[in-house]
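Q: Could you write out the predicted structure for this multi-component system? I'm mainly interested in how the pieces pack against one another.
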Amino acid sequence: TREIRLDRRPVGRPQQDCFSLAEVTLAPPGPGEVEIRPILLSVDPYMRGRMDDRPSYVPPFALGAPIEGFGIAAVEAAGPDAGLAPGDLVTGMLRWRELDVLPARRLRRLERHGEPLEAHLGPLGMTGLTAYVGLTDVGGLRPGETVLVTGAAGAVGSVAGQIAKLAGCRVVGVAGGAQKVARLRELGFDQAVDYRAGDLPRALRQAAPDGVDLFFDNVGGDQLEAALSLMNVGGRVVLCGAIAQYNDEAPRPGPRNLALAIGRRLTLRGFIVGDYEARRPAFEAAMRRWLVEGRVQADSTIVEGFERLPEAFLGLFEGTNLGKMLVRVGPE
Ligand code: NDP
C-alpha cells in the first residue's frame, strides 16, 4: 500500500517537497489488531508544529515515517480479540496510508445518527470540541456579550461563531476574502470583516463599536494586536491558535499593545483541547442536537485523492478551505 512520509523538516512555509510517497507491505492483522481502509483523513494546522523537531504537547513527526492525523476508516479485516468487525467505521489517529494495520484499542467505533461522515471530523470532532470548550470552559461565555472570532470561516472558527450566536451573543467574525465574509453572514454572524481588505483595526472598530467582551483567537499576529485594542474592561481572550505565526522563522515582536491588558483587567488564557476529553459527552449531545435542528451548519472542503493530502495541508496556510479541510481517500 502507499504512504505519505515527512521527508524533510520545513523551514518557514512547508512545501510539497517536504513530503514523499512510498510503497510499503503490510502484514495481516494479528491478535488485537485490525486492517483498516481510511475513508476521510483530516489535515490540521497543529501538524505544522509536529513537523519541527522541538518539544511540544505532541511529539514531532519522525523523518522518513508516515504523517499521522485524525481520520475515519472502515475495518476490512480483524485479528483475534480485536473487538471490531469488518464493515465497522472507526475513528482515531491514523497514519497517512491507503490501507493500514493498527491495534484496535487505538481506534474508537464511530456512532452514527444520520450525520454525514465528515461531520465527525468537523463539528462533532476535535475542531468542534475545541470551539465548544474554548468558548465555555476557557472563555466563560455569557449571553448578551460581544464575541470576536478570528479564523472565523475555518473549522474551529465557524463553529465557535455559531455556538456563540446560539448562546445569545453578538458575534463578529474575521476571515480572508469576500466569499468567506459572505458565508459568515449566512451563518448568522452579526458582522463579518475581511482582513485582506486592509485597515483591520478600523474595520474592527466599526464592526464592534461597543468593544469586545470575549475574543476567541485562532490567528495571532496582527489580528491579535488589533483585537486587543478593542477589549472591554474585564474581557477575556481565549488563545486557541496563532496560525499567522506558525511558519515564522524567528519569533515576532508583539502584541505591542499588551500592556493595556493591565488597565482593562484582561484575562488571556491558552488551552489545548486534549485536556477536555471529559467534556466530550456533553459536547456531543449538544452538537448532535444543533446539527439535526439545522442550527449549526457543518461547512467542509473535501479534497479528493490520497496523494493530495500534502496539497490540502498546505492549503490551510493559504485559506483555500471553507470550514473543515478534509481529504477523501476512498469511498464510504
Ligand atoms: P481552519 O479551518 O481555520 O484553517 C486555517 C485557516 O486559517 C485558513 O482557512 C485561513 O483562513 C486562516 N489562515 C491561514 N494563514 C493565515 C494567516 N497568515 N493570517 C490569517 N489567517 C490565516 O483551521 P482549524 O479550524 O483547524 O484551526 C484554527 C486554529 O485553531 C488554528 O490556529 C489551530 O492551530 C487552532 N486549534 C487549536 C486547538 C487547541 O487545542 N488549542 C485545537 C484545534 C485547532 P482565511 O482564508 O480566513 O485566512
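A: Regarding packing and overall arrangement: The first helix runs from residue 46 to 50.
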